[in-house]
Design goal:
The protein has 348 residues and is of the alpha+beta class. The chain has four domains: 72 residues, Orthogonal Bundle (Arc Repressor Mutant, subunit A), CATH 1.10.10; 68 residues, Arc Repressor Mutant, subunit A, CATH 1.10.10.10; 70 residues, SH3 type barrels; 73 residues, SH3 type barrels. 40% of the residues lie in helices and 20% in strands. It has eleven helices and twelve strands. Strands 6-5-4-3-7 form a five-stranded antiparallel beta sheet. Strands 11-10-9-8-12 form a five-stranded antiparallel beta sheet. The protein is globular and about 80 Å long.
């Protein structure tokens, strides 16, 4: 015969287990259901963004491209596109899915959130560059429109993410993008990197391993249908065109060379003024955050005011305040003559 105490304990244990699984709002079943719903929403939003990105690149979104991007079956991809069409976000035409106005607005909001979060990670944290994209992929689904607007305001409404991609405004507007790839740069010219494609991760990591960052200047020595040869930092090297096509550059003025020194705040004499054109990509984390908080952003006019007896630090007048910066900090801040207002893309 079963001991009543043991039977009671067994009943209590089973009751607790059932409650843990079936509790309406906090049980395991409810949590699994919410997670499933969240995952479903994320898949739909990722599918919508893929259609948008394919349109932006002038290509077509196919079932195969969507399935490959989301790592799902072609059947599942077809189901997602059907659901987006049912929601009025895409039109499934013979040539492929096309975004409706509502769908485009939703996709742009996702892109805006993603790129602002990457800007935040680059400017305000010490997270390695290779991890920015994956973190932003998660956050783009989690932030509300109000939170995104507050994030943009806290960052000073940046126009470019740390990879050089344009950040849509709250109204969905995008700045103009120069589309010259390193693979298409003319031999004999000097170019500056303004964008590194961050997908797929393997290509981005390979570009970074080659020493490529936003703001890096390269002399283009030669080009074939397979590779481009460049010079920088006293070294010549060759990049396969598969990699080079993922690097967007702008052509610099005739006579500018890759190894020519770039002017920084260190070069200013007391009483001399200059305009900030960017902060070196080498400056990250807390150091970059401090400079941004001090108002050191593209376009800011800075004046060298006082030099200490030892020459380091130097006091600079920035936005009406007197700020002391050490030589290392000042060397990260790139400048141009104060009357020059050119907007240097992708450097700050």
């Amino acid at each position: 015969m079963i001991d009543p105490a043991i039977a009671l304990l067994a009943f209590a244990g089973v009751s607790t287990l059932v409650a843990a699984v079936a509790w309406p709002r906090h049980g395991v079943a409810a949590r699994v259901r919410r997670f499933s719903q969240l995952s479903e929403r994320v898949l739909l939003e990722d599918a919508l963004k893929h259609v948008y990105m394919r349109e932006r690149m002038g290509g077509e979104c196919s079932l195969e491209s969507l399935a490959g991007r989301l790592e799902i079956s072609v059947h599942r991809a077809a189901d997602l596109l059907s659901r987006l069409a049912d929601g009025g976000l895409v039109r499934n035409e013979e040539a492929g899915p096309r975004l409706t106005n509502e769908g485009r607005e939703s996709a742009v909001r996702l892109v805006r959130t993603h790129r602002l979060w990457e800007r935040y990670l680059a400017d305000r944290t010490g997270l390695p560059a290779g991890e920015w994209h994956d973190q932003a992929e998660r956050m783009e689904h989690a932030l509300s429109a109000e939170e995104v607007d507050r994030l943009a305001a806290s960052l000073g409404h940046p126009a470019w993410d740390p990879h050089g991609d344009p950040i849509p405004t709250a109204a969905g507007e995008l700045p103009a993008v120069r589309a010259l790839s390193l693979a298409g740069a003319a031999p004999g010219t000097t170019v500056e990197v303004v964008h590194l494609e961050d997908e797929p991760r393997e290509i981005y990591d390979a570009l970074r391993a080659d020493g490529l960052n936003l703001g890096v200047r390269l002399d283009v020595l030669g080009r074939t249908d397979r590779a481009v040869t460049v010079h920088a930092g006293g070294t010549d090297w060759t990049l396969d065109n598969v990699l080079a096509r993922n690097v967007t550059v702008r052509t610099l003025a005739t006579g500018v060379r890759a190894d020519a020194p770039v002017r920084t705040l260190v070069d200013l004499e007391p009483g001399e003024r200059a305009r900030v054109v960017g902060i070196s990509p080498a400056c990250q984390g807390a150091q970059r955050r401090r400079l941004l908080d001090l108002g050191v952003v593209r376009g800011t006019v800075v004046e060298a005011a006082l030099r200490s007896a030892t020459g380091d630090p130097v006091a600079y007048r920035i936005r009406g305040a007197l700020i002391a910066l050490r030589t290392e900090q000042a060397s990260w801040i790139r400048i141009a003559p104060s009357k020059v207002a050119e907007d240097v893309e992708g450097v700050a």
